[in-house]
# Entry
Amino acid sequence: MASLRDIKKRIDSTGKMKKITKAMEMVSAAKMNKAEQNAKKFVPYSEKMQEVVASIAKHTDATHPMLQTREVKKTGYIAITADSGLAGAYNANILRNLKNTIEKNHTSSDEYTVIAIGRMAVDFCKKRNIPMAKSIIGLPDQPSFAFIKDIASETVQMYSDEEIDKLVIIYNHYVSAISQVVTTNQLLPIENMDSATGQGSQYEYEPGEEEILAVLLPQYAESLIYGSLLDAKASEHAARMTAMKSATDNASDLIDELSLSYNRARQAAITQEITEIVGGAAALE
Amino acid sequence: MKTLTVSVVTPDGPVLEDTYEMVSCKAENGELGILPGHIPLVAPLSISGVRLKRDSGEDKLAINGGFLEVRPDKVTILAQSAEKPQEIDVARAQAAKERAERRLQSKEDRIDRVRAELALRRAANRLNVAQR
# Structure
């Protein structure tokens, strides 16, 4: 049985750890609220964008490479993870999904490339020799559109240059504070436009339909990437908050258990002392 | 007098929503003036200032990349960024303008040039809107 001092030490260190996880939980809760607000602020923009793109795509026979499916020689995957761990299964879910998707659909590493967002995804790809076209580390907690604009437009450019023929994004969709779902979305070519609810109004186009699509579709794709990123950020903070909350709860349980065995050990020591004294006195008589 | 509802939306949230009598902006191929009752229209906007007019005065916005959607009673401007004159950081725009000019003068490869030109146009547009 562990000595009294050993148990005391463990109780102290667990207590300190609990303080840290509790603080991290509260920080994540604050960040999650902010991230959720950001995601909400973005909704009007994306809805409007979708509405206009859908109504144009529906009423026009103008074509654009982004609306057409071409033979897929190379697929680009955008994987959004966090920069650090301590977020429960957040990163692992994304990376497992990425690995399974790649193994299922591709046989050679020439057929795909990954755009890795977040240190966990970058390290994962490096370690497994997965080809990486681009990577970003150090994404701020509240990413602004300007920050993501470059990587988004470069990625969309890769599609336009026919470097990749299909673009898929893998991220955690934020359902609620305790539930995040890994989501795989095909960004390019843009499909299922017809199912979106267009207003049905017929527009006049200035200068022409094709020119508008040429300007609009890259922006639409960029906005989809940004939207997913905001969603992923909210999920990240939520996942981290939940993970830290359960760590705090575990620490409390552990401290309770340790206190119990500490008291038991203390009681045993006292009992033993009394027995020794009584035994000693008995021997003198 | 008839009015239009104008809403300006960016990825970082709505910037403005109000009623005006006229919207005047610069599309890719020329100036556009929108009055109430305009036919539905979609046009991409260039990096420019948008002027919103009404009885009580005129509001300006510095717009960067985006497009305009017009319905008879409503105008929506979707832009990557939109700033009111009082929100523009003049010192920063000035610095960005000088940086872009320097980059354009030093002859580097082509992609950098395109980006520098865009940066220059954005900075000049911001300064323009802030000063007027």
